[in-house]
Request: fold
Amino acid sequence: MYTNFISRYNRGACVLLLFVFHSSFSQSPKADQDIPLYPLEKIFSMLRSQPDSAIMLLPHYFAASNDSIKGKAYNYMGNAYYFKSNYDTAIQYFTRSSEIFSRLQDDENLSKNYNNMGVAHYFLSQYEKAFEFHKKALEIRERHQDPGITSTYNNLGLVLTDLGSTEEALYYYKKSLDAKIQYRQFTSLSTTLTNISNIYRDRNELDSALMYELKNLQHLDSLPDNRNLATCYNNLSISYLRLLDLKKAEFYALRALRLEKELQRGFELINVCKNLAEIYLQQKKAALAYQYLDSVFLLVPNHGDYRAVTGVYLSQAIADSVKGNMGAAYVHMRKYMDSKVHFDELERKNLVLDLEKKYQGEIKEQKILKLEQAHTIKDLEAERSNLFRLFLIAIVILLLLAAAILYSRYRLKQKTAGMLDAKNKELQSLNQVKDRLFAIVSHDLKSPLSSFHTVTSTLNQYYEQISPDDIKRYLTKLETAAKSLEDQMKNLLEWSLHQISERSLKTEVFELRDMAEKLRSFFHLNLEVKRQNIYIEIEAPIHLETDKEYLQTVLRNLISNAIKFTPAEGSIWLRANVIDNNVIIEVEDSGIGIASDDFHKLFTLESDKKSIGSSKEKGTGLGLVLVKEMIEKLGGTLALTSELGKGTTFTIRMAGKQLKKAA
Reply:
């Protein structure tokens, strides 16, 4: 039974080892381009078969500028020593790799390193340390829901079993079982089922052990996995043997024997033969027991540990005593004792050889350490050179930044000075406009107010002496002054609102001819006084959708100017038509005209309009400024054509989108 116990733990250790190698090297990293060395992926492929070569090549990668590459190089070095069974050194490199991946917050590679360190401590029989690192790996894998957690649970179960905490070991084995089912890792399910049944068998809870072994058997029946199936058969045989159900024990042992012969696994075959010998001894079948004990003798030289022979001598002595052959029993017992003494001595010699190997290994490690130190010195020198270079670059950058800042401040100063100069000019211009506006207001209001005052004063003083005809004449003058005052006030108000942007456009649909007729009626008295006529030439109805009040103010100002600068008995025309989907409105007069040199003066407040033309009725200049600004706000354009002595035409072009079809 002892031999089977050893076999079980060797099997468990193998599962653990395979997981370490696979999990650490699922990807083959590449080195930095600035290190033209033996490719890292090829070093990876030789870790198991040529660990010494890998150990000589890997230190070159410790100088990699990429920390991820450096971390993997240390991990590879740890695995190379692991495959040489030099677990102490392996742990040192795994620790360095862990420090790098911890700094990089690379949890995936960090958990692999913790797992590897746990395995290395396990094989050094440092079970508490092994448990500590497997727990660290577990915390990371639980946080990321990593499917590799199934192996971590299994490894914790192995460690706790050797610590004697079988209850906790069962807890983690069962967690591994549940996780493998969750992640559908059915191919490795048999290993965990075997580990659980082994614990129950060791605790002599044979019913529970059989339950998990039979579950394992049911699971393996659907898989082409003869290796685990042979192990399951042998474990079932051991459990039934302990329950003294010798028929079932023999049945499953013979099945295990058949599969192990096919698999040619010598060590496992030795265990099955020893198990069969024990079954037949229990059945008092000494001849059959001898047969399988002899098989052990034949297998040991090629496959087994010679120490297994010691147990065979003991079993043969028991078989001889069953047959009543006490002489043979005595002989085999003496062989058992001699063999035990021999192997104890051999173990001492092996211990000496192991110490010598470790000494040679330490010498080799010292050589590697010197090589690493040489690389470290080179790294330090390179780092110092890089730091000096970076220092010079930083100085140059600081100088460039200082120059850039100074230049920027100079440009900012220049720009600010330019802006201040522009603002000063704008302020001067605004002051001129303000002064001009005050002059316009004072002039335009002075004349009608003076006339208003003169007429009212005359009527008040000479009311009784004035004839009805004179009263009517004075009232007409009074009405004209009031009308002029009203027009000026409207223009001033409209211009002021437009300047401060308080008035937004109020669009509505209206007919242009109606507006023209109302404007002709509005200027009836002015036209009558100067014996002038306004001719409206709008044939087809034109419906517009725009700000009616704005357009009416524009046309009123243009007609007012036309009346003002056209001699008595002159004519004024108001035309409108649609050309190329645009509305064209013209106000033409037969007045005094405008010189082309004066065109640009008409639309700015800065110019003195009194210097324009030769008419006795001079304009103040606010009306046309207002007209131009309003037309632009309506989205139209204003054009002027004129010739001295031949009249003037103002042309308004309105966009087609403002043209509205009649309902």
